[in-house]
Design brief:
- By secondary structure, the chain is an alpha+beta fold.
- The chain contains 2 helices and 12 strands; from the N terminus they run βαβββαββββββββ.
- It has a single domain (8-199), classed as Alpha-ketoglutarate-dependent dioxygenase AlkB-like (Jelly Rolls).
- A 6-stranded antiparallel sheet has the order 1-10-7-12-5-2, with helices on one face. Strands 6-11-8-9 form a 4-stranded antiparallel sheet, with no helix packed on it.
- The chain is globular and about 45 Å long.
- The structure holds succinic acid (SIN) and manganese (II) ion.
Length: 203
């Protein structure tokens, strides 16, 4: 297996089952206030297979006309994003090694057939803060490479309760989700996977 990029951390099972349940309930409340929408690729308008929403002061959104960006309001409802749940702020304090709290929490929902192509997170001004991400529900096959698209990649299975930290060089490493393993978790009411991605956006 290729070497993982410097600063990449996989913390398996960091959230126990009770914590996962509470967090899943909090995500449901976020989605009630701020519904999942279908993001579209810049330029082509091709819909992504992952459905998204956000919580926090800023949310990451994308559509055909205006592309990848952060904004303070939901692109469909126009409402401000709900706040980031306290337990995610606690998690950030515990693992991020960064003095300021996250400004954005992207909520990705993967149904059984959804995936996310290899990409870098580079729409932020601040790369010294890590990206912290939490998995809930079905397992997925996560792929991580280097800072250039052609770099070798490594694949690892992420399970419900796992936390991944992209810090140091891995902050701008290419990564993606090749597939979901439907039915591998009983946490959520149906099949699927939730990923919560915490980020600093401004310097
Ligand atoms: C992302 O890169 O936005 C999501 C990664 C994941 O679903 O684990
Ligand atoms: Mn990403």
């Amino acid at each position: 297996m290729p070497v993982l990029p410097q600063g990449f951390r996989h913390l398996p099972d960091l959230l126990d089952r009770d914590a996962q349940h509470v967090l899943a309930e909090e995500v449901r409340a976020v989605v009630r206030a701020s519904p999942l929408y279908v993001p579209a690729m810049p330029g082509t308008g091709k819909p992504m297979s992952v459905r998204m929403t956000n919580c926090g002061q800023l949310g990451w959104v994308t559509d055909k006309e205006h592309g990848y960006r952060y904004q303070e309001t939901h692109p469909v409802t126009g409402a401000p994003w709900p706040p980031i749940p306290d337990r995610l702020l606690d998690l950030w304090r515990a693992v991020a090694d960064y003095p300021d709290p996250p400004q954005a929490c992207l909520v990705n929902f993967y149904s059984a057939g959804a995936r996310m192509g290899l990409h870098q997170d580079r729409d932020e001004q601040e790369f010294s803060a890590p990206v912290v991400s939490v998995s809930l529900g079905d397992d997925c096959l996560f792929r991580i490479g280097g800072t250039r698209r052609g770099d070798p990649t490594a694949s690892l299975r992420l399970r419900s309760g796992d936390v991944v930290v992209l810090g140091g060089e891995s902050r701008i490493a290419f990564h993606g989700v090749d597939r979901i393993y439907p039915g591998t978790s009983t946490l959520l009411k149906g099949e699927g996977r939730i990923n919560l991605t915490l980020r600093r956006v401004t310097g």
